[in-house]
């Protein structure tokens, strides 16, 4: 789409190349399957979250995740259904005309979809890549790309829309004629097909909304069991200490973010990087055993017993004394420097 | 520690007020900056371009409609001028009343049509922009925002880590804190700038249908202005990072104030933008619509804005009044609750008044009410803010000292160290750190107040110059009076500023001066103690004269003859008092040179004595035998001071040739040690008694030297003691002092006759007298 900055023809010419794999049967099914699995994983993590107060990155990640489906369903279904039942050929000039002239609301939706999906993908991808040894070296070159691609695509889309409008005004291109509702396609009229597509589309949208609502309700029921306050005492390296009192249920990292206490978290609470690890000095109640994920990370970092990941440890009602082990401004390059890691642990 | 507690206690009193005033000031500033825009919306028959955005203006300048309007306005201008000068006060008042009446009628009409307004808006909107165009505009807008946000994200990727480091810093002093806050602000503004660059840049690179352009641009501007407002508020309030906060609010309060400021800014900007867009739609439309539709839109927008501001004020007030600490105990006390309520009420009344005055279209009165009503709260707020910053600076210094102290006591437990350090630092806290900022505090306060008053006056002038009582004509009486008042205020404020600065500086130095106790040498600050009060009086007289002259000048009195007269008089007096002036000036320089201080023993030519007092002209020296010399400073040329730093005293003892020098050396050393140990002398002795061995040989004896070094003025007592001790020690060890003996050898065996004896004694006497050493120099006062 970024090619649209230059001309619509180029875009159209490049379409088969980009779409080659995804248009095949296997490719298409992989795409849809991956999407559905992604949705359910997202729903699971929403269900397991104890608080919705998150860092700004996570808020964007979650909001974009929830928005993708409503934005994507009309598009995906429109393409699948349109090709299958209405005999549309989704070429770029046609789509541009459709999006900019005939159904501008769809155009807006498409723009939003691109933006939201791209943002969601970038956050997910970068959160994962950030922990790799080689990432700091290539990151400065990757970031501009991450901005340039959607920006150029959108500019191309806008430019394409402008030229489509110009063509329309010049009279070169006629507005798309609404297909004759009575045209028969495999024995079903166009209008019936169209009505069917619309019903299914709305059905899917409503279904998604019901799914989200159900997950939220289930989560609410689950969270009702957690009542009470927890008191957290931070002991810093420089001898200062800080205490906060807050509702129980959230993880230590989430509590720190909610209370604006700087806390290292490179992987944003996924339990992978181990930068959020803290030394639990003492606790009034029992603390839960580390999960497999957490234990794996702790083992990998050779952490002594008593060290836990703040993003995984959800303190129970009572009080807990902890000591963060990493500086809040830790960077990926420090992460792989074993000497600093060991120094921190030796304390 | 007590001090720090007091600081925090005080900050609770202040914070409620600071928070709310902040909100209102912010609102009003925005309101005033948006004044012109609202002006246009209340005069529906004159189509004025929005001065808020120059780009828009430039575009509009190309518009023939606007060109016509400008021409009309240019033609109308002189007629307004002549009208302003021609009509008197009464007519002008009548005009105002008429204007209000007209406005009332307009408002009534607008009110009647208010139910139709949404419909009108929809109709005009649809006539100007089709649904397709609207959606396209939104699509474009989304694209621009994405471009801007993408750029900003990129910026954050490169600079985010730096920002995080800044936010994590611990500060040693206020200067550092402000510097970090500024660096952080620069980084945040950088990201905002990048966003603006991306979004507006993309916007500019497209060609547009004019209506779409107008709306998209307006929305972009709204977003940018809101973000600028939020960034400014973030700079001061720093809701997330406590260490960078520049106002005395805790985390919750800062967050609330930040949130409400953002809400107010958003509502204000959006309502202004809506009324501006609507007005432009109204001008562009070809449909016939009620002309007052835009008035009702503007009034509604303003009303919503005012209501939001009121809600914000009361929300913040109640938050501060019911503030609780982390453990749910109320931290605000009764008096701060009352003051929170009072200020909330006061500010609500001001906001209400401003809104009502705006509604009845008396913009000049509205501006004046805003300025007068907010001048006092703003003054109090800024003063509290300055105090808060200074308190912070002081407590930071205090903590710094504490940590320095605690470094000494590393072996003990952390809490004990802190406590010890607190106790240790407490006695000296009044002297060491709190004084450091005392000089600047009143000056900064004055400067802030000064700036505030000048700004208000400038604001008033601006408002009234455009208002009914136009001062564009300089010859009217009221403009004259106004000018005079402004001149006088400025002169007084400047004089006040200078005076306060000088006074605090002088008073502080005088307060530092502790008069020396009897018998002790005065410290180095004694020299200025004489001069500073005099300087203060001179400065006051000078300032009063200058202010008086400038007031007279602003009244139109010709002060040139006065100045000339004073000049002539000055010259005459100068000639007459030449010697006096020389004395005074020489005195000042001697004081600056620190040549002598009160209580010091000096010698000027052949006069000696202790400095007893200094006047502005002369020096009074008392000789050690009681005579008092008065020496004008002008007469002083070379001056010897015997009371500086140290004095070396050399003693001589005559001992027989057969004395054991080793023993003597040992004895002197012992005496030196004894003297040094004596608590009476130990402080005064710099180098104790030391034998210098045989200094020279004389006819009948050896001269042994002994020397010691003491503080000035103490040498006599020590010499006395040294003599006593040396004598006693020599006697105890069988060393006799050499006595003058004359051996007369008589070459005869027989007894001498009386005459011969006399002759012999006479010869011996002669020998003794001829060899007598020079009498000792009297060196003791």
Q: How many individual helices of chain B?
A: 23
Rg on CA atoms of chain A, Å: 26 Å
Residue fraction in strands of chain B: 5-15%
Report the uncertain regions of chain B: 1-14, 32-51, 76-86, 408-433, 467-472
Succession of helices and strands of chain A: HHHHHHEEHEEHEHEEHH
Number of strands of chain B: 8
The computed structural class of chain B is: alpha+beta
Number of strands of chain A: 7
Order of strands in the sheet with most strands of chain A: 4-3-7-5-6
* Beta-strand residue percentage of chain A: 5-15%
Distance between the termini of chain A: 54 Å
User: What is the tally of helical segments of chain A?
Assistant: 11
Helix proportion of chain A: 55-70%
Measured as a percent range, the helix fraction of chain B is: 55-70%
Largest sheet of chain B: 5 strands, antiparallel
Query: Which runs of chain A of at least 5 residues are low in confidence (pLDDT < 50)?
Result: 338-347
Structure description:
The complex is a heterodimer of chains A (347) and B (781). In chain A, helix 2 runs parallel beside helix 7 (190-223) and helix 5 runs antiparallel to helix 6. Chain A has helices at residues 8-23, 25-48, 56-86, 92-102, 104-129, 135-170, 190-223, 252-258, 292-300, 332-335, 338-346, and strands at residues 184-185, 188-189, 229-235, 241-247, 277-283, 307-309, 318-324. Chain A starts with 7 loop residues before the first helix and ends with a helix. Mean pLDDT of chain A is 77; it is low at 338-347. In chain A, strands 4-3-7-5-6 form a five-stranded mixed β-sheet, with no helix packed on it. Chain A is 60% helix and 10% strand. Chain A is an alpha+beta fold. Chain A has eleven helices and seven strands. Chain A has two domains: 2-222, no CATH class; 229-334, Ubiquitin-like (UB roll). Chain B has 781 residues and is α+β, with helices and mostly antiparallel strands. Chain B has 23 helices and eight strands. Chain B has helices at residues 2-33, 35-42, 54-61, 64-86, 89-112, 117-128, 131-168, 174-204, 210-237, 251-284, 293-321, 334-359, 363-408, 414-429, 440-466, 477-512, 526-555, 560-576, 578-593, 661-677, 679-682, 715-732, 754-770, and strands at residues 601-604, 607-614, 618-622, 628-632, 639-641, 647-655, 685-697, 702-710. In chain B, the strands form two sheets. Chain B has a five-stranded antiparallel β-sheet. In chain B, a hairpin with a 2-residue loop joins strand 1 (601-604) and strand 2 (607-614). In chain B, helix 10 packs antiparallel against helix 11, helix 15 (440-466) runs antiparallel to helix 16 (477-512) and helix 16 (477-512) runs antiparallel to helix 17 (526-555). The longest helix of chain B has 46 residues, at 363-408. Chain B starts with a helix and ends in an 11-residue tail after the last helix. The model of chain B is unreliable at 1-14, 32-51, 76-86, 408-433 and 467-472 (pLDDT under 50). The chains are: A alpha+beta (347), B alpha+beta (781).
């Amino acid at each position: 789409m970024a090619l649209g900055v230059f001309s619509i023809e180029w875009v159209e010419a490049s379409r088969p190349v980009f779409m080659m794999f995804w248009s095949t049967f296997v490719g298409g099914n992989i795409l849809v399957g991956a999407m559905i699995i992604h949705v359910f994983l997202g729903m699971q993590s929403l269900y397991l979250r104890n608080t919705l107060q998150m860092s700004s990155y996570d808020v964007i990640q979650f909001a974009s995740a929830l928005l993708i489906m409503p934005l994507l369903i009309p598009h995906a279904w429109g393409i699948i259904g349109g090709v299958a039942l209405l005999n549309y050929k989704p070429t770029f000039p046609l789509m541009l005309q459709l999006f900019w002239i005939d159904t501008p609301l769809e155009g807006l939706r498409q723009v939003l979809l691109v933006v939201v999906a791209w943002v969601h993908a970038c956050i997910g991808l970068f959160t994962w890549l950030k922990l790799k040894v080689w990432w700091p070296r290539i990151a400065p070159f990757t970031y501009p790309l991450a901005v340039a691609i959607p920006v150029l695509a959108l500019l191309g889309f806008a430019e394409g829309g402008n030229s489509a409008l110009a063509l329309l005004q010049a009279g070169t291109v006629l507005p798309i004629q609404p297909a004759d509702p009575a045209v028969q396609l495999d024995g079903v009229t166009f209008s019936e097909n169209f009505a069917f597509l619309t019903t299914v589309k709305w059905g899917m949208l409503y279904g998604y909304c019901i799914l989200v609502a159900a997950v939220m309700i289930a989560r609410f029921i689950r969270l009702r069991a957690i009542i009470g306050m927890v008191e957290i005492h931070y002991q810093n390296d420089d001898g200062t200490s800080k205490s906060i009192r807050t509702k129980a249920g959230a993880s230590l990292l989430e509590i720190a973010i909610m209370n604006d206490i700087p806390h290292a978290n490179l992987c944003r609470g996924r339990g992978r990087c181990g930068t959020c690890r803290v030394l639990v000095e003492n606790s009034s109640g029992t603390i839960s055993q580390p999960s497999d994920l957490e234990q794996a990370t702790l083992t990998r970092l050779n952490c002594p017993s008593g060290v836990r990941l703040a993003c995984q440890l959800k303190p129970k009602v009572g009080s807990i004394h902890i000591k963060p082990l990493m500086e809040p401004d830790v960077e990926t390059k420090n992460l792989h420097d074993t000497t600093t890691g060991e120094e921190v642990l030796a304390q | 520690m007590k001090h720090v507690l007091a600081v925090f206690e005080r900050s609770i009193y202040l914070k409620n007020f600071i928070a709310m005033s902040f909100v209102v000031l912010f609102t009003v500033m925005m309101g005033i900056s948006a004044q012109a825009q609202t002006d246009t919306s209340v005069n529906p028959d004159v189509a004025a371009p929005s001065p808020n955005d120059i780009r828009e203006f430039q575009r509009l300048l190309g518009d023939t409609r606007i060109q016509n309007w400008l021409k009309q306005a240019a033609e109308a201008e002189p007629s307004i001028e002549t009208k302003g000068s021609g009509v008197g006060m009464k007519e002008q008042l009548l005009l105002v009343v008429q204007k209000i009446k007209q406005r009332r009628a307009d408002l009534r009409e607008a009110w009647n049509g208010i139910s139709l307004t949404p419909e009108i808006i929809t109709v005009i909107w649809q006539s100007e922009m089709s649904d397709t165009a609207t959606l396209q505009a939104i699509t474009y807008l989304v694209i621009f925002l994405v471009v801007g946000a993408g750029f900003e994200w990129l910026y954050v990727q490169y600079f985010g880590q730096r920002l995080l480091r800044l936010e994590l810093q611990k500060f040693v002093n206020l200067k550092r804190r402000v510097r970090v806050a500024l660096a952080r602000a620069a980084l945040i503004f950088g990201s905002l700038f990048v966003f603006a660059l991306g979004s507006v840049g993309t916007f500019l690179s497209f060609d547009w249908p004019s209506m779409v352009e107008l709306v998209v641009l307006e929305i972009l501007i709204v977003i940018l202005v809101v973000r600028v407002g939020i960034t400014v508020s973030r700079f001061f309030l720093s809701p997330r990072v406590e260490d960078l906060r520049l106002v005395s609010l805790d985390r919750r309060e800062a967050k609330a104030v930040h949130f409400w400021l953002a809400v107010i800014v958003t509502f204000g900007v959006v309502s202004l933008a809506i009324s501006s867009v609507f007005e432009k739609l109204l001008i562009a439309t070809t449909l016939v619509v009620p002309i007052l539709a835009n008035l009702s839109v503007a009034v509604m927008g303003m009303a919503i804005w005012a209501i939001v501001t009121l809600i914000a004020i009361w929300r913040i007030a109640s938050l501060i009044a019911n503030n609780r600490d982390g453990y749910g105990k109320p931290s605000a006390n009764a008096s701060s609750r009352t003051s929170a309520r009072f200020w909330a009420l006061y500010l609500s009344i001001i906001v209400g008044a401003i809104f009502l005055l705006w509604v009845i279209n008396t913009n000049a009165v509205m501006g004046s009410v805003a300025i007068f009503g907010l001048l006092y709260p703003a003054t109090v707020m800024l003063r509290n803010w300055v105090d808060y910053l200074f308190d912070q600076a002081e407590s930071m210094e205090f903590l710094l000292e504490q940590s320095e102290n605690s470094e000494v006591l590393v072996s003990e437990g952390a809490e004990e160290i802190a406590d010890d350090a607190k106790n240790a630092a407490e006695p000296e806290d009044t002297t060491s750190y709190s004084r450091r900022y005392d000089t600047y505090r009143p000056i900064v306060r004055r400067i802030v107040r000064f700036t505030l008053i000048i700004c208000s006056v400038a604001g008033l002038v601006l408002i009234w110059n455009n208002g009914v009582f136009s001062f564009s004509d300089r010859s009217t009486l009221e403009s004259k009076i106004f000018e005079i008042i402004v001149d006088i205020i400025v002169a007084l404020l400047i004089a006040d500023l200078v005076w306060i600065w000088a006074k605090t500086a002088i008073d502080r130095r005088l307060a530092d001066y502790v008069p020396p106790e009897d018998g002790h040498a005065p410290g180095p600050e004694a020299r200025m103690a004489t001069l500073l009060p005099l300087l203060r009086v001179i400065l006051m007289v000078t300032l009063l004269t200058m202010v008086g002259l400038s007031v007279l000048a602003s009244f139109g009195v010709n002060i040139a003859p006065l100045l000339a007269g004073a000049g002539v008089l000055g010259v005459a007096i100068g000639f007459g008092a030449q010697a006096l002036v020389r004395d005074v000036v020489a005195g000042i320089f001697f004081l600056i040179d620190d040549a002598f201080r009160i209580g010091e023993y000096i010698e000027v030519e052949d006069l000696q004595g202790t400095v007893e007092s200094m006047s502005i002209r002369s020096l009074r020296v008392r000789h050690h035998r009681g005579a008092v010399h008065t020496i004008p400073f002008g007469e002083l040329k070379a001056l010897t001071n015997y009371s500086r730093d140290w004095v070396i005293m050399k003693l001589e003892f005559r001992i027989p040739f057969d004395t054991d020098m080793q023993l003597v050396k040992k004895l002197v050393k012992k005496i030196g040690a004894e003297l040094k140990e004596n608590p009476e002398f130990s402080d005064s002795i710099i180098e104790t008694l030391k034998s210098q061995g045989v200094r020279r040989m004389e006819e009948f004896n050896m001269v042994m030297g002994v020397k010691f070094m003491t503080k000035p003025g103490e040498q006599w007592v020590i010499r006395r003691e040294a003599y006593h001790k040396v004598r006693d020690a020599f006697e105890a060890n069988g060393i006799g002092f050499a006595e003058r003996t004359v051996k007369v050898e008589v070459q005869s065996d027989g007894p001498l006759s009386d005459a011969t004896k006399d002759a012999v004694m006479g010869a011996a006497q002669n020998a003794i007298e001829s060899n007598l050493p020079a009498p000792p120099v009297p060196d003791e006062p």
